[in-house]
Specification:
It contains 17 helices and eleven strands. By secondary structure, it is of the alpha/beta class. One of its GO terms (biological process) is lipid biosynthetic process.
Length: 418
């Protein structure tokens, strides 16, 4: 172990910011004035630090093998600097491994299993999420339309950005797939006058949104259902569909079927907005250096990432035509840092919202998850794409005389005009 400690000391000296360690026996290593202080309780952590296994270090922290004193922003600077290489490259897999992954993906995304996986994450505690999300509890990437926006303003700007892209109008039938705590569903109903249906697999979210619908007196034209997207009735097509932060849970092996289902739910000429996290690398469904395993274990069981190039392939296989693509990666980095900072400012209150049995582990996991994802978006290891699509067009169109199956303007300025 002394040789491992020697490697750690050498690594500490090369870092871009000073770090100090306190060993289980009280021995001090590193800069005594450092802002980042790791209190090591299990010496296996030293091996993971020496080898740059960032995801495993995250597990060590969740399991109480070391404690942290210092800011999460500084900690993520430290994490990025100890990586042995790009986590995208570390996650590249061979064809056989990828084939096995795809076969396993079919099994791990059954209707029942997906429901359990969604409830594992989203039913943790409504009060916990309420501490660090904006007042509308929008749990997806914000849109910082102006540099001075706070996260609550950016979330409202994002909701409106989506509604404008979809060209929502009074009386249209609108479907929100994976509607969360109802931010987009209610915004579209209140600001654009649509008849709105949302679905979720989270029991907590289902109950929460239905309370809001009743409180706002929107029961006549807004509804929230506890339903898997595969079970949606195709008999009455929707005019517009949004899927925000949901398709990451679908699984790569199911994406053709997912986009095909959305197409069948859409009327001719209708529009679909798919907003979701995408992989930074073409060949990896998760990050390397143990990061993907950490998220799978503690945060999003069953989550899989797909590069935008593959997303577009699956979208086309499902019978849809991509119309507008926007990468909001830097917006998500800023959103996640806002969430992380909000959680860090309310750690005592956060502990009170979580169960006595696993509350401390969950809190530690989310501290690492939010800050780690912010770092990942900053470095371009993961991205966030909005893809606007419609059923694949037929024949030619004239700008002044659209056929019924082509309803998208030729220019993007309609999104930004007030």
């Amino acid at each position: 172990m002394s040789s491992v400690l020697s490697v750690v000391e050498t690594k500490l000296a090369s870092l871009p910011l000073p770090v100090r360690l306190t060993m289980p026996d009280g021995q001090k290593v590193g800069d005594s004035n450092a802002e980042i202080h790791l209190l090591v309780k299990d010496r296996s952590t030293l091996t993971h630090l020496a080898t740059g296994q960032v995801g495993v270090l995250g597990e060590d922290y969740v399991e109480g093998k070391f404690d942290i004193e210092g800011s999460m922003r500084d900690l993520m600077r430290l994490a990025a600097s100890i990586l042995p290489g790009s986590p995208i490259e570390a996650a590249r897999v061979g064809r056989l491994t990828e084939l096995i992954r795809r076969l396993v993906s079919v099994w791990r995304h059954s209707v029942d299993r997906d429901a359990r996986q969604i409830q594992f994450h989203y039913d943790l505690s409504d009060d916990f999420y309420g501490l660090w999300l904006d007042p509308r509890r929008v749990y997806s990437c914000g849109y910082f339309k102006t540099p001075d926006m706070n996260v609550a303003q950016a979330q409202e700007a994002k909701l409106d950005h989506i509604c404008r892209k979809l060209r929502l109008s009074q009386g249209e039938r609108f479907l929100d797939v994976g509607a969360g705590w109802g931010g987009l569903l209610l915004w579209a109903a209140e600001h654009y006058g649509v008849d709105a249906t949302g679905i979720t697999l989270s029991k907590n979210q289902h109950a929460y949104v239905n309370r809001l619908i009743e409180e706002k007196g929107l029961g006549g034209r807004v509804r929230m259902e506890l339903l898997d997207y595969r079970k949606l009735d195709e008999g009455q097509p929707y005019d517009k569909i949004a899927s925000v932060g949901m398709f990451e849970h679908v699984g790569r092996a199911q994406l053709d079927g997912y986009f095909s289902k959305l197409r069948r739910l859409l009327r001719p000429g209708g529009l679909i907005m798919n907003h979701g996290i995408t992989a930074g690398g073409v060949d990896n469904a998760e990050l390397g250096a143990g990061m993907g395993e950490f998220i799978e274990k503690y945060i999003f069981p069953g989550g899989e990432l797909t590069h935008i190039s593959h997303v577009l392939e699956h979208l086309a296989n499902g019978g849809l035509e991509d119309l507008d693509i926007e990468n909001l990666r830097p917006h998500y980095a800023r959103t996640l840092w806002a969430w992380s900072d909000a959680l860090e400012a309310k750690l005592p209150e956060a502990r009170q919202t979580l169960s006595a049995e696993n509350g401390e582990r969950s809190l530690r996991a989310y501290r690492i998850y939010l800050a780690g994802c912010a770092m990942g978006f900053e470095h371009g290891w993961i991205a966030l794409h909005q893809v606007l699509a419609q059923s694949r067009g037929h024949g030619r169109s004239d700008e002044l005389d659209y056929p019924a199956d082509i309803a998208y303007p030729w220019r993007r300025d309609y999104i930004y005009k007030s």
